[in-house]
Specification:
The protein is α/β, with parallel strands linked by helices. The chain is built from 9 helices and 14 strands. About 30% of the residues lie in helices and about 25% in strands. Strand 1 and strand 2 form a beta hairpin. The chain starts with a strand and ends with a helix.
């Protein structure tokens, strides 16, 4: 139980005035007095943090977090919508009698969802980014879903003894070039550049990473947990490297992952000469196996259009 100004926050999140005098003081608090009464009338709402006798954060029944307004500012809890996105998903059933795709429709709280873009920087024309990722991002923004980015910045570890520089010099360059030389030459003023359609907007954090996973040695996890995120809708590159490892580590941190499968590497890309296979819908065995592995081990998938439709028809 917490005393909040002229009222008391009781177990479960309700608010009651201690006496008639306290009720009058609540009225004198203006917006804050009304907020306290609203909070008490909304079943399932609760204060999650109380500092100096006043709540700083409140949570809805589904777990979404909202900042408590400072004195002098108004927030009508009755106008705070608790929307759900109903998204069709696909996964792969890896057991005898299964060995086929499963399909479901999930109803997920919008306030617990974040649209995560992995390594979509670069200014060269890109059909997947412009025709699939950009419209999905626009739909997420229109639905007021939270948006976050991660991008590569190997300047963070461009040191002489870095094993990535040693090994990639053997696997990616015929002349034993060191991939870290490129990053060392960028200088302190480097900022990732984006196509206009997918440029990070105001309030959309962009976390630098030095290796594949967007969670490794970054503050992405802290940011997501601070906002109560439980579900990640993920797009970007590459399905065999950064996108894959980011999603795998997300599951390891107990996030539900939904990959927009056409918002990543298109058929026939990320292949080696001996893995290309035009007879496969994925265009090759790398794409086929990485997607199959994802859909039976890491998370659900959907499509850009299914996400766009669901975002435009919130419940």
């Amino acid at each position: 139980m917490h005393t909040i100004g002229s009222a008391t926050l009781v177990e479960g999140g309700g608010v009651e005035a201690a006496d008639e005098a306290s009720a009058e003081k609540a009225d004198a608090m203006g917006c804050h007095g009304r907020h306290l009464r609203d909070l008490g009338s909304r079943s399932g709402w609760r204060a999650t943090s109380v500092v100096g006798g006043m709540p700083t954060t409140i949570a809805s029944e589904s777990g979404g977090l909202y900042p408590w307004p400072p004195i002098g500012m108004c927030l009508n809890l009755s106008e705070v919508s608790v929307s759900e996105i109903e998204i069709p998903v696909r996964y792969y059933k890896d057991y005898p009698g299964g060995y086929d795709y499963g399909y479901e429709q999930l109803s997920l709280p919008l306030e617990q969802s974040t649209f995560l873009l992995v390594d979509v920087d670069g200014t060269a024309p890109n059909a997947t980014t412009q025709e699939f990722i950009a419209p999905a991002l626009a739909a997420a923004r229109q639905a007021k879903m939270r948006v976050a980015y991660v991008h590569n910045d190997l300047r963070l570890v461009a040191d002489p003894g870095n094993i990535v520089g040693e090994f990639w010099g053997k696997t990616k360059y015929a002349d034993d070039s060191n991939v870290l030389d490129y990053w060392r030459d960028l200088g302190d003023d480097y900022r990732p550049q984006y196509l206009e359609e997918v440029t990070p907007g105001p309030g959309e954090p962009n976390f630098p990473k030095w290796i594949w996973s967007g969670f490794h040695d970054t503050f992405l996890d802290q940011h997501l947990r601070s906002w109560g995120t439980r579900t990640l809708f993920v797009v970007g590159y590459s399905r065999r490297a950064c996108l894959h490892y980011t999603c795998a580590e997300a599951v390891g941190r107990n996030y539900r992952v939904i990959l927009l499968r056409d918002c990543s590497n298109p058929p026939g890309t990320i292949e080696f000469p001996d893995t290309l296979d035009e007879s496969l819908p994925e265009g090759g065995w790398i794409n086929r196996i990485t997607l199959r592995n994802f859909e039976h081990l890491i998370g659900y998938t959907t499509t850009a259009q299914e996400f766009i439709d669901a975002s435009g028809n919130l419940k």
